[in-house]
Amino acid sequence: xxxxxxxxxxxxxxxxxxxxxxxxxxxxxxxxxxxxxxxxxxxxxxxxxxxxxxxxxxxxxxxxxxxxxxxxxxxxxxxxxxxxxxxxxxxxxxxxxxxxxxxxxxxxxxxxxxxxxxxxxxxxxxxxxxxxxxxxxxxxxxxxxxxxxxxxxxxxxxxxxxxxxxxxxxxxxxxxxxxxxxxxxxxxxxxxxxxxxxxxxxxxxxxxxxxxxxxxxxxxxxxxxxxxxxxxxxxxxxxxxxxxxxxxxxxxxxxxxxxxxxxxxxxxxxxxxxxxxxxxxxxxxxxxxxxxxxxxxxxxxxxxxxxxxxxxxxxxxxxxxxxxxxxxxxxxxxxxxxxxxxxxxxxxxxxxxxxxxxxxxxxxxxxxxxxxxxxxxxxxxxxxxxxx
Length: 388
Ligand SMILES: Cc1ncc(COP(=O)(O)O)c(C=O)c1O
Prior knowledge:
By secondary structure, the protein is of the alpha/beta class. The chain has 13 helices and 14 strands. Strands 2-10-9-8-5-3-4 form a seven-stranded mixed β-sheet, with helices on both faces. The chain has a five-stranded mixed β-sheet with strand order 1-13-14-12-11, sandwiched between helices. It has a two-stranded antiparallel sheet with strand order 6-7. Strand 13 and strand 14 form a beta hairpin.
């Protein structure tokens, strides 16, 4: 067995590194989830989450992964057979589409090449063509974690308005919330889906829905079966500070701490930090002579970078090598990109020297794996970090 020393580099695009402050907060004794101290905790985290989602509306917290929060968004707003417009931006958009179909929704899945975000022209055209109003929701992934491509949510809302369509807008922000600018209210999103283990710097285990007044109103008539995910019972209990079932008490302690950390930093500063690390990473990729999965600079993700592996080389072999030699975990290629790409997560509790170490591990790994590339990516990234 190989013994490792020093810090493991967890640079997958989530789960991300959990800061000491959050780990210590989680390590406190569990309390009665029907007592007054817990009610205060609930109110604090929900108020804090409103600031993170940039909303004054309702936010619910589930003891779930992000997949649960996806399901909650669909079953609370839609009825069997309702039309849903979705876009094939990558692996996670495809999984959400599969879920919608399994729930009995009628999905139009606009094909995509996994290298671009939501096609705004195709979106507007599909909505304009839907004269009978069969499409009840547009459901998109803001930041495709499988490709490092970010779709333009403000632009999506503008095109929905331009088409004069009344569909709800559902947005997955699982790998963008608290890392990339995202405004639930200003962009008039109806349901924002997210979870704990990425930009919020927590372990996996909490799922979120931020809910507009319109989505809440439509949920009264939505007929997909729901029980565990039901907003109404959740919101009714949350009012008094409680949950309809046993909540993840210790993760909520961690959430309170993580929100405090993000608000101390300030969301604009956190977004700028992610933007700078993403730009430095892209400089490295460019200097290596490798290709990003993302093809449109306006759609580059700031929370992760997905890189195409040169033909004939296996991305997972590189990942195995850097794990064994440098104790560095990189993200695997998912779905259609399996073996053909690898991903660097640079989100959450992350700083310049962590990025320098990560990129050094990748550069050494490329050399040792015999991948054709040009040295100097780390130097290019450091130059940007030093200059900004
Ligand atoms: C964009 C996106 N959506 C959905 C999911 C699914 O979340 P979970 O694995 O927490 O259920 C993920 C997971 O990485 C994701 O990145």
